[in-house]
Automatic annotation (TrEMBL):
InterPro entries: AIG2-like, AIG2-like_dom, GGCT-like, GGCT-like_sf. It comes from the Bacteria. Keywords: Transferase. The keyword Transferase applies. Residues 29-132 form the Gamma-glutamylcyclotransferase AIG2-like domain. SUPFAM superfamilies: Gamma-glutamyl cyclotransferase-like. Residues 1-21 are annotated as: Disordered. Coiled coil: none annotated. This is Putative gamma-glutamylcyclotransferase. CDD domains: GGCT_like.
Length: 163
């Protein structure tokens, strides 16, 4: 059933990826794209947090032209993913810095009555007409993407030591 209630309020924080965006770590993160793969999480934060299947009604996991990872946009479908819990403040900072500026952190209501925060596309995002496929991503892009994540993390840790 599509989401009929007003969506959770939009955040007033700056664009994702900027330092100090998170003053307090949110309680749970709904992941629907590359972050649902344990290999990606491990490359970024050295562990796979507690997670369980979750769904966000009234949202669509869409392709983003020129990118192998998706974006979450309002839609008439249900976005499938996982709810990650138990992330530390440091892990939230790493994930927030990792996320593309095309995203903003928003609160979403989940189909089972819970809620979580997620990185959804901002209003200016270039979104494709097709739904993103986790199976296609895994088959065609996952190993190279994990390597990109590991390289990004090394650069991030180096820059954090310099700061």
């Amino acid at each position: 059933m599509p989401h009929t209630e007003p969506r959770s309020p939009r955040p007033t924080s700056p664009t994702s990826g900027r330092p100090d965006r998170l003053s307090v770590a949110p309680e749970a993160l709904f992941v629907y794209g590359s972050l649902q793969f344990p290999e990606v999480l491990f490359a970024l934060i050295d562990r796979v947090p507690d997670h369980e299947p979750a769904a966000a009604e009234g949202w669509r996991v869409a392709t983003l032209p020129g990118r192998v990872y998706p974006g979450l946009v309002p839609g008439d479908t249900t976005a499938q993913g996982y709810l990650l819990t138990g992330l530390t403040s440091d892990e939230w900072r790493v994930l927030d810095a990792f996320e593309d500026p095309v995203y903003e952190l928003v609160r979403v209501d989940l189909g089972d009555g819970r809620h979580g925060w997620t990185y959804a596309c901002n209003d200016g995002a270039d979104v494709g007409p097709d739904d993103w496929s986790a199976d296609d991503f895994e088959a065609q892009h996952l190993p190279a993407y994990v390597e990109r994540c590991a390289a990004w993390r090394r650069r991030y840790e180096t820059s954090e030591q310099v700061s």
